[in-house]
Amino acid sequence: MKINKDFDRLLRKYSKHKKNFVPGKTTIPLISPSFGNDEIVESLDSLLSTWVTMGKKVKKFEEGFAKYIGTKYAVMVNSGSSANLLALYILTQNKKNKLRNEVITPAVTWATTVFPIINVNCKPVFVDVDLGTYTLNTDQLETAISKNTLGVMPVHLLGNVCDINKIKKNVKKSNLFLLEDTCEAHGAEFKGKKAGSFGDISTFSFFLSHHITTIEGGMILTNNKKFYELAKSLRAFGWIRELDKNNIIAKKFPTIDKKFLFINMGFNFRPTEIQGAFGIHQLKKLNRFIKIRVANAHYWNKKFKGLDDLFILPKTIKDVKHSYFCYPLTITKNAPFRRKDIVKFLEKKKIETRPIMTGNMTEQPVMRSFNYKIVGKLENSKLIMRNGFFFGNHQDIGENEREFIAESVIEFVNKFSKK
């Protein structure tokens, strides 16, 4: 369309260009929006067409993302949080599973991994994480499984991949569901397969801070046709419009308009065409974004190698390709400084930081209102809660920014050691 070319030309004229980095004066943010002219023009095309609710562009993004991850089906929703809730709702619908109501998940995660478990009337069972990987401690998994266990919900936290082989063995042995929370691990791999392709269902988030963004948005992926069909119905009120067999269903209820025939109790988790418009262009950029994040992380790993008596550096298990949502550091127990000291120092340098997700979720006051179980003492989770933090790692952190971050951390260590 000529009008799109005109928009593109104008956007290039007025779009913000990256400013020169001035160490100590230019903020290095935790997140930096990764969209540009392509996404904006595609969105404007949807706005001008007036077709702005879920449509062809959402479908195109779903198909492209399923192909990228390596699953048969994908269903886009309005957020990663909704994806988790919808996935858990699907897994609890089978009548034979009604007596099993426990879902095992790591204590260090984000709140919307845990809340959906409670929303579907299940009980979270918290296990510890491994230091450095920040992923579920599989040595505790067998102990955590009981006759009431419905499934395991590992979280590929911060772009790292869980020990999926051990998890799958335990899941298969006990006939459990496997729900991969992959909201922060776009493009991460285990033995050449993408995270999010191993479970009965997996979930992703496309919030602004993630590897790719649709501003808000999420995705459910599965190879199970029944789960796929149920997800399509549940995300839109429980109606039959998108179901493959909607005509067959409609014939059973000839007095009801099939456009308004409800077969399930559903939600309104539909995404918009604006989100789909973003997604189809962001997906093309994902591998390039990951390459930048990995290069940055490898640089910091090398620069901080001699500081392992002070910091627990990011680690992976064998055969994992980490996609580095951020760069986490956990201060060791014997370090002569505390988290607040280094965070304050870095923030003065205009390097933004934040704690690692919710820390130990069982220590959050909201959990006093709910019933849950703990396996073991969660010692690593407690340490991360008090000593863990991360700084940003995204497509707009270049060589100058990453060098300044490394120099600042080393400067802090050197100054503190002289006190």
Overview in brief:
With 419 residues, the protein is of the alpha/beta class.
Average pLDDT: 94
Helix content percent band: 25-40%
CATH superfamily of the largest domain, called what?
Type I PLP-dependent aspartate aminotransferase-like (Major domain)
- Radius of gyration, in angstroms, nearest whole number: 23 Å
Name the CATH class of the largest domain: Alpha Beta
Main sheet overview: 8 strands, mixed
Number of helices: 13
Strand content: 5-15%
Task: Tell me the total number of β-strands.
Answer: 15
CATH architecture of the largest domain: 3-Layer(aba) Sandwich
The secondary structure category is alpha/beta
Q: What's the SSE pattern?
A: HHHEHEHEHEHEEEEEHHHEEEHEEHEH
CATH topology of the largest domain: Aspartate Aminotransferase, domain 2
Distance from first to last alpha carbon: 65 Å
User: What low-confidence regions span 5 or more consecutive residues with pLDDT below 50?
Assistant: none
Q: How are the strands of the largest sheet arranged?
A: 1-9-8-5-4-2-3-14
Shape: globular
What's the structural domain tally? 2
